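Duplicate of #3305? Posting structure anyway:
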């Protein structure tokens, strides 16, 4: 099944009870064109800088081999528009409805995915070690700066799969192939966001004839009430920078609070235990 933006206009940041229930049941919301055009216009050159200046590669190296590379020289949230996106008020209001009034920022990934990049196999991104329950929610917000169309890879999700406890790579053997019950999201306007429960299985599916880069920023947030495993060895520094930069706008005091995290585990975060390090 393919979903177009016009069919999803009912999903807005002003959630009513039925929309909240729908998210709880299906595990996703689609927000066509939620990001202001001015913000998108400022984000895109920052993504280009992040990729072209080697900052993304340096950030990955710092996570893969922290003993060698240490803390990266620049964090995504230190880029002005990226930092603005992390605490974007309409997004914060939405998360407050879905996660409750107390939630914490987990991570930010930014990328310009070239048309030749292969797809990403079916996976989920719920951080729990071991995977035992879904008592607390974690959300990934996938921001598609240029939207999605036939010239870029599509996003496919498996509605309702977030309610089943499974390892992140439990469906990776399926690659990016179509599976029963999936929903394909491949038509979205510029500045659109897909909000996923992090335990929802999804895949980036390549499209024949794709011919332009796919600008995507993935920002993740966790419900308070449990200690979440961090995936970046420099997580304390990242949270401190968020506080120093005032990215919570003085409205969300828990957004960069360290007490919501357990200690970093190099074993848990190593690539062999996680899906491929590229955004969906």
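Output from current build:
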């Amino acid at each position: 099944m393919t979903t177009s933006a016009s069919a999803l206009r009912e999903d807005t940041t002003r959630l009513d009870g039925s929309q909240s229930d729908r998210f709880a049941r299906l595990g996703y919301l689609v927000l066509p064109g939620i990001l202001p055009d001015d913000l998108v216009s400022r984000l895109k050159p920052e993504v280009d800088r992040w990729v072209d200046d080697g900052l993304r590669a340096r950030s990955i190296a710092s996570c893969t081999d922290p003993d060698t590379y240490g803390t990266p020289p620049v964090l995504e949230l230190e880029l002005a528009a990226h930092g603005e996106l992390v605490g974007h008020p309409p997004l914060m209001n939405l998360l407050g409805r879905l996660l409750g009034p107390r939630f914490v920022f987990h991570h930010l990934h930014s990328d310009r995915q070239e048309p030749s990049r292969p797809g990403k196999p079916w996976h989920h991104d719920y951080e729990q070690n071991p995977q035992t329950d879904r008592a607390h929610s974690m959300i990934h917000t996938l921001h598609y700066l240029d939207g999605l169309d036939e010239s870029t890879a599509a996003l496919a999700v498996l509605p309702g799969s977030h309610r089943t406890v499974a390892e992140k790579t439990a469906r990776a053997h399926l690659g990016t192939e179509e599976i029963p019950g999936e929903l394909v999201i491949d038509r979205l306007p510029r500045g659109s966001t897909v909000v996923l429960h992090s335990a929802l299985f999804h895949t980036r599916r390549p499209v024949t004839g794709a011919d332009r880069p796919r600008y995507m920023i993935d920002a993740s947030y966790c419900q308070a009430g449990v200690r979440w495993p961090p995936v970046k060895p420099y997580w304390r520094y990242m949270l401190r920078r968020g506080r120093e930069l005032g990215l919570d706008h003085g409205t969300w005091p828990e957004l960069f609070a360290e007490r919501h995290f357990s200690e970093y585990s190099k074993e848990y975060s190593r690539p062999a235990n996680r899906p491929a390090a590229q955004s969906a």
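Confirmed duplicate; merging threads. The domain at 2-273 is CATH 2.60.120.620 (Jelly Rolls). The two ends are 18 Å apart (CA to CA).
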